[in-house]
Each structure stands twice: as structure tokens, then as C-alpha cells.
Write a structure and sequence with these properties.
Length: 640
Amino acid sequence: MAILFCDCTTSNGRLAREAFAEMLQVAISLAYPGVEIDRERLVSTISISKPSHGDLSSSVAFVLSKPLKIPPRDIAVRVAGLAKPTGHVFGMEQEGGYINAKLDRAAYSKVVMAQVLLEGENYGRNQLGSNKRVIVEFPSVNPSKPWHIGHLRNAILGDSIANIMAACGYHIERDDYIEDLGLQIAESVWGYRNIGNRPDKKYDQWLGEQYVKVNKIMKEKDISGEINEILKRMEDLSTEESALARTVSEHCVDAQYETAFGYGISHDLRIWESDIVRAKLLEKAMRLGMDNGVLELAESGKYANCIVVSLDKVAGGEDSLKDLAEDVKVLIRSNGTATYVAKDVAFHMWKFGIVPVEFMYKKLPILQSGNHTLYTTAENGERADFGRADIVVNVIGSAQRHPQLILRSILGAMGYKKQADRIVHVAYGEVGLSEGSLSGRSGGWLGEGRSFTADTLLDEAKKKVAERVKENTKAQKQEVDEKAIAAIAVGAIKFEFLRIAPEKSLVFAWDKALDFGGNSGPYCMYMYTRARRIVEKAEFDKGDALDAAKSGVMGDVEFELIKLLSAAEDVFEKACVEYRPNVITDYLLDVSSTFSKFYEKVPVLAGGEQRDARLALVFSTMQVINNALLLLGINTVERM
């Protein structure tokens, strides 16, 4: 789904492509009068190429081949022959139908390094979003268990997407929806009353183990009546059961957030289902849907006394909804209880400000990563500025594809097509470990002698990282920095979770995540520390780098690195528009491997007239790696 309304500053990489596009457009108009190609489309045909194929390459001849009915090679030869140099771009030639161009290395590298060094941590950021409001909802885990690694993937994706969109100029609100009135919570309340109420470990772990025990008891004897009675009483917010459900849930979520903080993941707002009920959001949303005729009260038949929606009525262009076995979706059951779809429709009407419910909010005295302030909806509190989003991003498993389609279809049929089109479902595949499996209900996340919780994964990562660091002979002579160990462990896990495209299944393996030699988070982090050590050894600071950048760099490997650094803004924007953090992991690996090749081939500290310019390039690379890692939620360390 494309993001709208771009108003962004231009990077050096984009300036070069724009200049190349201008050359091409003029040459195309001379070669084929009357042929028009949109400038944006033309720019999209241009990419960075390897030195053997010039510096920039365009596939525009392939785009023009079909309408002109001329072979791409013939078009490329003619256009390249008519192109005139402009800016940093010159040396146009064709190869296999592609039109290649060269860049003025000294001039181009000067402006790239200057921009990196002057903008610092802001380098690569842009104003694509024009400060539009975006709600990113994640991970919305039921408050009855600890996070397992599936929940962790959700949280890492949501956190990274929020970081990336913020870097592209969006105003981000990170929401966590807490379902404290559902069946799982009723089961936990039953366990709290009948099994035990004295936690002897981290609360979410204790509650999760108790939740598994309740489900075992349910297989041995029928306690469904008791649990259903608890569930019914929970929905009356004046009851003891409702208050107990909220208390148990709050303790569990606080414990889950300890896990989140361990991974450097933060939120802006916890939104509780019980507070949504208290604000009568559901009733207002359902009434609005019935008033405009999209929802209806069934008077007879299978769905008598239920509020329903006809999928045929709302399907529109969604052919996948027409393939469903059901043609009616129940939103409110005959006993008055709401289905997941009804709650989701109402919640999104609040997110977009369609139903302007004013919640009460409290600021929580919790220190999150980066001193990020956390609010919660509450029975009593103050007003605050949340909701009213322009775009909503939901990080939800691939299995929820149809419910998300139904949600968008219902909102669209109600007359809110614009908002429906701006609901983004970031679907992610299942997660497993190379040596095990997980399952919330069966207790498989407890395992045999191992728990597949996010906590255990991080603890194990820290141990394995510490072992790797101690293997280094230098590290054996000094005390291991526990903060650095934790940062490397978090970086290893996050990078591996984000390296795979969201929709694909992920099998986490230690040998890949902790490969310090390449294709991993620790590898990219090491390249940062390597760059840092080089400039520290040279006693070279940012001011020195800015002075040295004025001379530029000339060699093939140096310029390959320059071209990659110049592409940062485009990479960040692509990751934002496509909601794919793996675009940034791929970029980081390219930058890291090219930097490794650079300092292995080029004796940076050996002297020579290019020494300072190369140090400026090292300084610039260090900055870009840092900036890209931060968007993934990974902090750098000084030593590895």
C-alpha cells in the first residue's frame, strides 16, 4: 500500500538519479519526439550499479520497447548517444539494453560525506510522512501468559516499523490493546481463585503456568459453567470479578513489559478492553453501522436477535470474501456479547476518530527505553491527545488476513472508504526454533527442560554471546562488559527476526543469529566498532572528517561504499512505504560487507595523500551503520 503526500528533502543519491533522469528525458525526447515518460517512472528505472557497469544504470529502454516496438538495445544505443552530461553525471553508454552512466567520483564523494557528517543521526531521515498521524498497534498479547517467540516477532516488527516511519516524518503512536474481558482471562481468574494466588516467579510466567494447569483441569472435568459465569460477571464492570480480572491482567502486562524493556521495546499507550466497554464505544459504533444500513438486527432464523453484516453487501472488490463458506458475519450475539470483529470495528472507529470517544488516561511511573512516556486508559484520569490517526498499521499474524479484510470492508461500506484504505495489515509468518516448537494453549512454550519464552531466548543469547566474547584472547584479559553483552544479544535476536520478510515463516537458529563473520546483527555491529576503533586510533574527530571530506575519494572500493552511503534515504523510505524492515537489514549487510572489503584492501592508517579522506569515509560509514541499526531498535557498542 503506497503512503500518500510526499514532501521530502532530497538526498545526494536522489539528486544524482534526478540528474541522470533529466539527461535521459531530454535524450528520449530528441530520439523519439512525441514519446512521453513520467519523471517519477523514469527515476524508478535507475539503480546503483557495480563499477564494471558504470555507477548508475537505467532500464528505461525496456519500458519503452513495447510501445515503440523497438528492441531495448537499439533504444539504449540511440538515447545514450544523444545524452549530454549534467551535474555529477557523465559517460553515458549502453550495455545489453541498459543505459549506464558514471559519476564524478571526487565531487560526488565530497557532497555525500559532507551530508552524512553534517546531518549525523538525522542522515537518511526525510519528511515523507509530513507529520501525519500513524497508530502502530503491537503486540496486543492476551494478559494470561508470558511472551513466546511468536509474540516477540510481532513486537520487534511493530517497534521497528514505528521507528522507520518516525524517521520518515510520521507522528507515531504505539498502541497496545489489552483484552482483559476475554475467555482466557476468565480462565485465569478461575485459576487464581481455585489453584493459587501467590506468585513465586515472574508474574506472567507464573500466570501462564497456571493457565496451562486450568486447561488440563478442563480436560479432566467440566468447569465450563463456572468459567462462563465468571466471564459473564466480568463484563459487568461493577463486579468483583471484573476488578479481579483487571488487577490480574495489569500485573501480567507489567511483567510482559519487563520483557519488552529487555529488548528495548516501548509503547505510548495501553488501551484496555474494559475501558472501551466503560466508554460505550461498542454501542456507539454498532448504532452508527445500523443507522446507515450496513449492520442489521436479524429478526428470525439462525441469527435471530443477533446484529449481523451480510458479507455480500460489504465485499465490494474483495473476491476473497466471496469465497468464504459463511455469507453472514455475526457482530453481536443474541445474548448481547460482542464478537472479535465487532470489537475490532469499534476500536478502529476510535483510532480514526470516527466515533470521538474521550477516554481517561493516566501516566504510568514506568521507565521505558529512551525515557519514553507510557500512558494507560483508566477509569479515572485526565484527557490526552491520542487516536485520530491518518493511517493505522496493525501487526497481526497471517492467519488474521480474512478478519482484517472484513474489517476494512465493513468500514468502507459504512462510508469510511478513505479510512478503510489506510488500514495496513503487516502480516507475519509463524516462528519456531531450530530445536523445538511452541504453542500457547498446550503449554508447548514451557517445553521439556526449556521454555520458549522471549525471556528465555534473551537469557540464552546473553550466555552464548558471553562465551563467544570470552573466546577472544584479548577479552580473556579483561572483564566482560555486561551491558555490551546484553546489547549484542538483543541485536542478534532482533536482526535475525527482521532479516526475513515479515510474511515468511521464521526458524530461529543460533548459528545464524550469532555469526560474527557475516550476515548477522553482531557482524554489522562489529563493523561499527571496527570503524570506531580506526578513527579513535587515528585520533580523528568529526571536525577533522569534515575538513578531510573536501578532497573526496577516488578508488573503486571507496566509491562503491560512497554510493551505498548515498542511498540511505531511499532505503529508509522504501522500508517505510513497504513496511519491511528487512529492506534495512539487507542494506546494512551490503554496507558492512563493502566496508569490510574496503579496510582489508585499503591501508587507511598507512599514510599517503588519501589517508584523511579515507578516514572521513570511515567516519561516515560508522554514522550510517549506527543510523540504520537504530531503526531496527539495535544499539551499537564501543567494543566487541
